[in-house]
Structure formats: C-alpha cells, structure tokens
Amino acid sequence: MALNQRDLHWRSTAVNDSLGNLEEVLPYDAYKDVKIKIKEDKDLSVKAKSRFSRSLRSLSEPMSLAEMARTWDVCARAVHLHFT
Hints:
The chain is mainly α. The chain has one domain (5-83). The protein has helices at residues 5-19, 22-25, 28-31, 44-58, 65-83.
C-alpha cells in the first residue's frame, strides 16, 4: 500500500499526538550518562532470532501476526536481560 505525503503526515501527527511530548517523559538529562554493558561480545540479534525461531515452533498453527509479535517481544527482552 503506497502512502502519499499527506497520509504520512497525518499518521505521524496522530502518533505524536497519542504519545504526547516524549522529551517531557524521557528528558535527555535522565539517561545521557547511562552506559549499557554487554556481557558477551556477540551479536545479540542472532541470539534473539534463534530464540524466536525456537519459540515459533511451540505456537499453534495458524499463528496470528499478533502472536508472532508478542513472541518476538518476549524473546528480544529475554536476550536483552540476559546479556546486559
């Protein structure tokens, strides 16, 4: 589905309106000095994809896009928590 410039502007405006001002919620000063330390020097996306692939096998078929998205979210968060 191709979106024209007006549709893109409307969608981005709607998203911005629903989120409010993120700079008020996440001020730069609150996180500018936060450093993330990774326990292993490996590509975490590979670990997340592997975990996601294993998790997809346990979902019943047909699986919905929402189920797949939730599964990816769980896998990515688990890998992030384990390695940071």
